[in-house]
Design brief:
With 133 residues, the protein is mostly beta strands. It has one domain. 7% of the residues lie in helices and 52% in strands.
Length: 133
């Protein structure tokens, strides 16, 4: 990752805040800062190797902050996920940070199958790291 990015929030898959705060993400979004998200184990469903640790970094293009819920959401750039031997699938994803008595991270995906010409939504939980610049 290029210099200049500052990590402002990190939380585990179960939503436990490890460092930073939701407020720092919200403040950066309201100031118009660029946001990038690191997603732990996003490709775990594509690998036959169990517990193969990895992290995907993707830049956000749209950031929203729901003030009453203290809910920052970042819409990300399209991301291509490939598994060995599988056809290419384009995954358009929306990343979010949900707070319910604590901070819970979720990844809501909208994968598109170019062969069947259709998409479907899915949600998975991941540890997330939020960066601003």
């Amino acid at each position: 990752m290029r210099d200049g990015w500052q990590e402002v929030l990190s939380h585990s898959e179960d939503g436990t805040v490890l460092s930073g705060s939701v407020d720092k993400v919200a403040e950066a979004s309201m100031r118009g800062c660029e946001i990038k998200v690191g997603i732990r184990d996003l490709g775990r469903d594509l690998s036959e190797v169990p517990n193969m640790d990895h992290e995907w970094f993707v830049q956000a293009h749209s950031n929203y902050y729901y003030t009453e819920q203290k809910l920052p959401i970042a819409g990300t750039q399209p991301l291509v996920r490939l598994a060995s031997g599988d056809p290419a699938y384009l995954y358009l994803r929306r990343l979010g940070l949900r707070q319910v008595d604590g901070t819970n991270g979720f990844v809501s995906r909208l994968p598109y199958d170019p062969y069947l010409l259709r998409s479907h939504r899915s949600e998975t939980r991941h540890a997330l790291r939020w960066f601003v610049r």
